[in-house]
Amino acid sequence: MRLLIVEDEKRLALSLAAGLTAEGYAVDVVHDGLEGLHRAGEGVHDLVVLDIMLPGMNGYRVCAALRAAGHDMPILMLTAKDGEYDEAEGLDTGADDYLTKPFSYVVLVARVKALLRRRGRAGGSPVLAVGDLRVDTAARRVFCGENEVALTAKEFAVLEQLATRAGEVVGKPDILEHVWDFAYEGDPNIVEVYISSLRRKLGATRIQTVRGAGYRLVAAS
What we know:
Elements: E1 2-6, H1 10-22, E2 26-30, H2 33-40, E3 47-51, H3 59-68, E4 75-79, H4 84-92, E5 97-100, H5 105-122, E6 127-130, E7 133-136, E8 141-144, E9 147-149, H6 153-164, H7 172-179, H8 190-202, E10 207-210, E11 214-217
Parallel strand pairs: 1-2, 1-3, 3-4, 4-5
Antiparallel strand pairs: 6-7, 7-8, 8-9, 10-11
């Protein structure tokens, strides 16, 4: 899952990004409403955390513009304001949820997960099945047959990308884009490290290497 944080309080934005990254999400951060609209409009994010009081363009207008353009990703609005009118205005422009500052980080994570679960139910079952492998994207649990397999947050995120497109070849750039954020400048071969780890835990035959193209998740042979 790839998230976008649009928040002009840089310390708060980076703190949220660090926490959500630790939860296994890829996180992009921008500090301006116009840039936030541009990045969210690219359509690569699964959820947007959107502050209301932003330079360039406020969050209400960003949200309204995204909805007018047909983008349906969940939007969680953040604001220092408090009052029924502000909440109603945010929801009227198309936001899915609303959180007033100061807020608990634990509550924010819970809201993010709830919005992603809700979107998963709207789009179909949150459980991806490939043979006897089941990837529960809502509970973030993985089962091989009756046995649960413990994965790290990043391992789960890589597997989720493969399971979402089971049977298809998923390129390394696609995995990097959705599991690591756009600012990642490390070794792209990090993907191979996680693929190797998943093979050890799930069985070597489940993830095929398609030379020069990427990886394919299949039922165990």
